[in-house]
TrEMBL record:
Domain of life: Bacteria
PANTHER family listed in its UniProt record: UNCHARACTERIZED PROTEIN YGJP, UTP PYROPHOSPHATASE
CDD domains: M48_yhfN_like
Pfam families assigned to the protein according to its UniProt record, in alphabetical order: YgjP-like
UniProt region (Disordered), positions on chain: 175-194
Protein name: YgjP-like metallopeptidase domain-containing protein
Residues annotated as domain YgjP-like metallopeptidase: 94-150
Length: 194
């Protein structure tokens, strides 16, 4: 199994085979672009908070309040996650108050809206259900009926982003290679003269 397929590890073998084939043919990006042609315009933390609150007010009216919803640049690298739901407990006047915060990986600041929606729904579901159990996924599907398909497609988006990023890094290396070879050639010529 390709290392890129770690994002979809645990999915059925036919899906893994289809994805591997799309990668080998260089068509994963085309497939994603056909399904999700446009990125969302929710790029500020304020807009993300409002977007999240719309879902919360529609589906989780009686749940604990949210104090913060932000894009986080470190989340994917540090936590190996796409989103985080955290509780911040503070002592205030002898009472412990906890605040709910949602952090979304910065990668999704410029992504198709359905992927952002899936992540927001996922993190909101953690307000009521802490564990990834049957009730958790039922709540996700209640808020977003296409939750499972969007989760898979978001994972494919991650694979594509990783492959594209590595491809760009390889292009940079290839562009640097002739310059490095020229430097080595110049050094060898200098050594011959000395």
């Amino acid at each position: 199994m390709s290392t890129h397929l770690r994002y979809i590890q645990g999915y059925p073998e036919p899906i893994l085979d289809q994805v591997e084939q799309l990668i080998q043919q260089g068509k994963l990006g085309v497939w994603l672009k056909q399904r999700y042609p446009n990125n969302h315009s929710i790029t500020s933390d304020k807009a993300l908070f409002e977007y999240t609150m719309d879902f919360k007010n529609r589906y989780l009216k009686k749940s604990s309040p949210l104090s913060k919803v932000v894009y986080d640049k470190k989340i994917h690298m540090v936590n190996n996650a796409l989103g985080l739901h955290t509780y911040v407990s503070k002592v205030h006047g002898g009472k412990i108050k906890s605040k709910n915060e949602i952090r979304i990986a910065n990668l999704f600041r410029q992504a198709p809206e359905p992927f952002l929606r899936m992540l927001v729904v996922h993190e909101l579901a953690h307000i009521k259900e802490k564990e990834h159990n049957k009730a958790f996924y039922q709540l996700c599907c209640h808020m977003e009926p296409e939750y499972h398909q969007l989760e898979l497609d978001a994972r494919l988006y991650l694979i594509h982003q990783e492959l594209t990023h590595q491809g760009l890094n390889q292009q940079e290396l290839n562009q640097q290679e002739p310059a490095a070879q020229e430097q080595l050639h110049q050094k060898s010529q200098t050594n011959k003269k000395g």
